[in-house]
Amino acid sequence: MIPGFANRRRFRDLSEQEILALAISSEEDDARIYRSYAEMLRDDYAASAAVFDGMAVEEDDHRRRLIDLHVQRFGEVIPLIRREHVSGFYARRPVWLVENLGLERIREEAAQMEQDAERFYRAAAANTTDAATRKLLGDLAAAEAGHSDHAAKLEEKHLDEDERTAEESAAHRQFILTWVQPGLAGLMDGSVSTLAPIFAVAFATQDTWTTFLVGLAASVGAGISMGFTEAASDDGQISGRGSPIKRGIAAGVMTTIGGLGHALPYLITDFWTATTLAFVVVFVELWAIAWIQNRYMQTPFWRAAFQVVLGGALVFAAGAIIGSG
Q: Per-residue confidence at 168, pLDDT binned at 50, 70, 90?
């Protein structure tokens, strides 16, 4: 067994038995990843899940061929060596990280996995002198290179044009419901609701540091409140809006960003310079909200702009009047 990260082996120093063992463990990992993708997609994207099931089956076949060769050449005891034991060897992203990035990103990750595997088999074949081993590794490199064609055939079998369109539409809708909608609500809340307290304190004290502290507190507090409210209000099971944790993160982070945008200028010590810059930031924030509404929610741009600018102007006026009084 190769010891921990501090003592990683260089690929060129591996024996042929270790190269075979590394190939076997890599194929096991890839098959497991493909099955994980299939399982997470099965409920919403059954056709794409079938594609990943087929790719996992092919990885299993690669593993069996490698094990047969290892038994023939070195016996039945396979050394335990994995990707993380080899310096500079390609790594796989955790499944939980990729699953949060959507259907198309999962497909791109699978394509990258095949390219990594192809490069490995070509390098492994170049480091082997046994003819049978070299032939098998070369064949597997060709198989990994052809996986895109195999995946295309699987997609033709399981994914017709209507199913692909339906899955892409469902993925886009899920992205809107899980990330865009709560994020937009948070950005609107953070950008608009913090205007009154920030500018009230600004005009009342004309102290930029105090204004910044109030803005920071209001932004962070609103972000925490919005995040917990979004996460607790709907578990997503009936509404189909997705993970409450993801929605809570989207709402909380965007709320905080929306408030901090016009609080940060008050780190500038000159009051009127800071306030002028804060006005500019507010303008950018409100137009960004209008753009997002138009881009993702199909709200006519000028109607969205009128709504957010009017709302922002009213809240700002309230804060300025209260602060001046």
A: low
